Amino acid sequence: MWLLLRRAIDYLDTVPPFLLIILAITTLRWKRRDFILYYLCSQFLFNGYANWLNELKLDNLYAYSLNFSWSHYILSLYFFDLYKTASWKKLIVGAVALFQFVSVFSIEPATAQITFDSVSFGLISLLITLLSLYYYASQLSGQPRENILNVSDFWYVNGIFTYYASNFFIFLTFNTLISKQYADLAIIWRVHNIVFLVMCIYFFIGLQCRRSAGIFKS
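RESULT FIELD:
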C-alpha cells in the first residue's frame, strides 16, 4: 500500500497538469495568451519526460532544468501581462534575460548535460514569490471593484506563490543534497510534488472563474 502511494506521489507533478489541460480544452476555457495553461503544458511535458527518464534509471536533472527555465519564461510573460507598471516590467524582462543567459552557459559542452543550478533556481523562486506578494499588495492597497474570490488571477497567483515560496529552500539546497547523497532526497522531492498538487488545485479553482469579468462560469 505504501509503495503504491509513493508511486502515486511521484506522478503528482505530471497527472494533475494533464487533467487541467484536458479540462480547459473540453470546457472551451483555453483563451489566447492564457499563460497559466502554457505553464501547465510545460509542466506536463517536462515533468513527464523527467519521470520517464526516472523509470529508465537515467539522470533526469536535465529535464527539470529545462522545465524551470521555460516555466520562468512563461510566468514572466504572465506577470508582464498582469502588471501595468513599467518598472516591474523592466525587472521581469531583466530577470528573464539574465536567467536565460546563465542557463546557456550552464551546459557542459563535453557531456551536453545541465546540472541542477540551485542558486539560480532559488533566486528565481524568490523573484516569483516577490512578484506574487506585489500582486497581493496591489489588491489590498486599492478599493476592489469585484469580489477577489471570483477572480481567476487571484487563484492563479495563490498557486504560484504557494509552490515557489514553499519550495524555495528545496531548490536552494537541492544541489548540495545531491552532492552529499542525502538518503531522504526522494522524500524531499515527494514533499515538492504534494505542494505542486496544491498549486494545481488553486489553478483548478481559477479555471472556474472568468479572468476579466470576475464571475464564475456556469
